[in-house]
Amino acid sequence: MEVKAAIAKQEKEEVVIYAHQLDEEVETLQKSIKELLTPQLLSVKKKREQYKVQQKAVVRIYRENRKLIIDTLDGYFESHQALRDMKRILSADFIQISQSELINRRHVQRVKITKTGLVELRLVGERTSYSSRRYLKILKEAL
After folding, report:
1. Is residue 54 part of a domain?
2. How many other C-beta atoms lie within 10 A of the C-beta of residue 46?
């Protein structure tokens, strides 16, 4: 395999893989490149102090009272970003389970469907989240 770099006068940077066919090796390469380009640290704040948090330490991200709350293994933080912007910069481990919440699938311990049709997600640290039926298909594919 040959590796080349070229400079283009485009606003948006991109990585293009040319291959004879889309096989498992190419898909693995795509995932690896995407992970390298995804920022691993999130800029968050707690009581007016700025912190950097590893994505893998984030259990869930949700909106509450017009604030974006970052629930981590080490506690709760806030972010100034919108949920949709946060979703764009997060790795593929994060799944949207409702209009106002993302979870890290690596921290899901148990999934249960309730009598009302909601999906109950048990996360690490005795945390519980609920997914609406609207996001059930996405959730099934991701888990």
Report:
1. yes
2. 14
